[in-house]
Amino acid sequence: MGWEQEIAELRQRQRAAHAMGGADKLARQRAHGKLNARERLAALVDDGSFQEIGELSGFAQYDAAGTMVSFQPANFLFGLASIAGRPVVATADDFTVRGGAADASLHRKLTDAERLAQEYRLPLIRMIEGTGGGGSVRTLEKAGYTYIPEIPGWEVMTANLSQVPVVAMGLGPVAGLGAGRMVMAHYSLLVEGTAQMFVAGPPVVSAAGEHRTKEELGGAGIHAGNGAVDDRVGSEAEAFLRTRWFLSYLPSSVDELPARTPCHDPVTRADDWLIGAVPRDPRRLYPVRPIVASVVDAGSWFEIGREWGTGVVTGLARLDGWPVAIIASNPECLGGLWTAATARKVERMVDLADTFHLPLIQLVDNPGFLIGRRAEEEATIRWGCRALAAIYQASVPWCCVVMRKAYGMAGSGHAPADRFRWRMAWPSGDWGSLPIAGGLEAAYRAELDAADDPAARLAEIKAGLEQVRSPFRTAEHFGVEAIIDPRETRAELCRFAGMAQRVLKPGKKARGLRP
């Protein structure tokens, strides 16, 4: 005799597992415009590459003879797969089984997915829909006791932030631990209209006296705007596309360096319009995103966090095929002033670049920290100093291009000053401890009061200082390493990106990365 009977039972259990929450629940998922967990896994990874781990796990019921009469699969799926030929750990919550609730999950599956990524140094992808936390009041009734809260596997999730790329996609309502798993990632996004994120959902909030719809409480627009997630997208298909694109810039783990790809964009490409990109009138604003797109490899610009911390534009790109991280001042938002949110966004991008060995490019037009009551209420100085600390703690090669302003403490964050600075400036560069226009009359008050014609004397002082503030005067004293034609920026940055490879070293940083 062979094992035909057991194989038949194996096939029966596999069919039960693949039935997920049943035909009705699957139909409801489709009616809401959402893929189910298995469809999501298939859509994200390379065709046919998903190898499930724990396929048969779940909750079975047996009759008196020991025959299985029903089976509810666990509502968390994970396994090995590949994206663009590179192995990853892919996970998906199954909302069709108890709405992704904890009482239908096996915590060890979740923690083992995290451990697999950690121990085998593989990127980790979480497709999240549901709660996945400590269960409901009904769960406590069934257990017959309560407990002091703990989060199984949180230590592994924390460690993974310093070791492997982690992406989190919110593909439906996400609450409690699900929300925690969302933000414990290097890149996170929510699908507009179908995904929301909250510490506690509308029923719990309503019991506390605040009545909100899911969108009003935690819609994608809210969290893309406050930085709780990095981006929002219009569809699940776009979420999968952006996940694959994001991972293409990063190594599989900190033990490797980011890979170069073939570049068909000439290093010497020079866009003539760059020479006039910065207006002569210092009060005029200008868009920075076209500048970024012009100097990096064509089609490689991948912006992250477009809707929050809008004083800077951040993202990933390539220069002559080499992956780099980009921080660019955004004069169209408060003239590029750093707010508390802007500083947090800078810190986050610096930490991402430093963790995964990406050379960092900064395009600078920074008039300083925001001032006034709002700045003080938001503790701008504390968050600004955290960003400066991140800049000085970073060990990756750093290059900056001063396009226009670099003033005050925030302006000093253009590059770490304690090591070789690969700096260049455009002729429009303007820098100092504070803008001359802001302190001119106060500095010369006594002299102006004594003058026969204060207005004429003020004009003379301004004319003299305009000569002193010339970027060429700074270059004479080696206060800036180079002044370049803006049209040469791409060639110079590509040269830097190639040289940076001599400095990059694989391995984990001495400090852990914070979400």
Query: Could you give me the name of the CATH homologous superfamily of the largest domain?
Result: 2-enoyl-CoA Hydratase, Chain A, domain 1
Which structural class do you get from the secondary structure elements? Answer: alpha/beta
Ranges where pLDDT stays below 50 over 5 or more residues in a row are none
Total domain count: 2
Helix content: 25-40%
Q: Count helical runs.
A: 21
- Label the CATH architecture of the largest domain: Alpha-Beta Complex
Terminal CA distance reads 56 Å
Annotation, overall tally of beta strands: 17
Overall mean pLDDT score? Answer: 92
Question: Rg, please?
Answer: 27 Å
Major sheet description:
8 strands, mixed
CATH fold category name of the largest domain: 2-enoyl-CoA Hydratase, Chain A, domain 1
How does the overall form come out from the CA principal axes? elongated
Notes on the structure:
The structure is a single chain. It contains 21 helices and 17 strands. It has 515 residues and is an alpha/beta fold. It has 2 domains: 4-247, 2-enoyl-CoA Hydratase, Chain A, domain 1 (Alpha-Beta Complex); 272-434 and 470-500, Alpha-Beta Complex (2-enoyl-CoA Hydratase, Chain A, domain 1). The strands form 3 sheets. Strands 1, 4, 5, 6, 7, 8, 9 and 10 form an 8-stranded mixed sheet that branches. Strands 11, 12, 13, 14, 15, 16 and 17 form a 7-stranded mixed sheet that branches. Strands 2-3 form a two-stranded antiparallel sheet. β2 and β3 form a beta hairpin. α4 runs parallel beside α6 and α13 (340-355) packs parallel to α15. The N and C termini lie far apart (56 Å).
